[in-house]
Structure formats: structure tokens, C-alpha cells
Amino acid sequence: MRRIALHYAKRWFFLDVIVILPDWVTLLISQYAETTDNFGGIRLLKVVRMFRLLRTVKLRRLIQYVLTSVESDLLSTFMHAFLVLALIFGCLHLIACLWFVVGDT
């Protein structure tokens, strides 16, 4: 367990802190500020939160490992189809978020 914790601390802890920090700052500002609408930094912090997508690098390596270790052609086909559908849903989600931002402004 200690080896896993050290590996995490060396590789991913700093990135996780950078990703989570804007959420903490936004929460603290919204708790203690009277109005958060006048504080333009909150919008910037929300943009910085999108850096969570950097974690997909780790996920991509895991997917590649699983795809190369699967020996069944049928299972491999299903896994590729699932990945394509996940990509399509991800793109649709991103488009919906962009339309929300356009409609909100």
C-alpha cells in the first residue's frame, strides 16, 4: 500500500491538487463573498477546472493495455464499438455544454 501511495504522490498528486484547487477557491469565495457575480475570477477558475481532462491521458494508456491484452475478436470488436459510442457521447456532451454557455450569455 505504501508503494502505491508513493507512486501516486510522485506522479499524479500535484496534478490532482492543481485540478481541485479552483473548486476549493470557488467554494470559499462563494461562501464568504456577498456577491460572486462581480468577481470575474470565478469564470477563470471554472475554465481552469476543464484541465481535469488531462486525466484522460492515464485512461488512454489503460484502454490501450486492455485492448492489446484481449484475445477474443468478438470482445475486441465490442470494446471498439463501445469506445466509439463513448467518444460520440463525449462530443455530444461537449456540444451541449457549449450551447448552454451560448444561451447563458
Task: Describe the overall structure.
The protein is mainly alpha-helical and 105 residues long. It is 80% helix and 0% strand. It has 5 helices and no strands. The longest helix has 32 residues, at 73-104. It is flat and about 55 Å long. The model has no long low-confidence stretch (mean pLDDT 77).
In a few lines, what is going on in this structure?
It contains 5 helices and no strands.
Separate helix tally: 5
- Mean pLDDT score, rounded? 77
SS strand fraction: under 5%
The beta-strand count equals 0
Distance between the termini: 48 Å
Outline the low-pLDDT stretches.
none
Order of helices and strands: HHHHH
User: In angstroms, what is the radius of gyration?
Assistant: 19 Å
Structural class: mainly alpha
Largest sheet: none
**Which term fits the overall shape?**
flat
Percent helix among the residues? Answer: over 70%
Quickly list its features.
80% helix; mainly alpha; 105 residues; 5 helices; 0% strand
Topology (SSEs and partners):
Blueprint: H1 2-11, H2 13-32, H3 41-48, H4 56-69, H5 73-104
Helix pairs in contact: 2-3
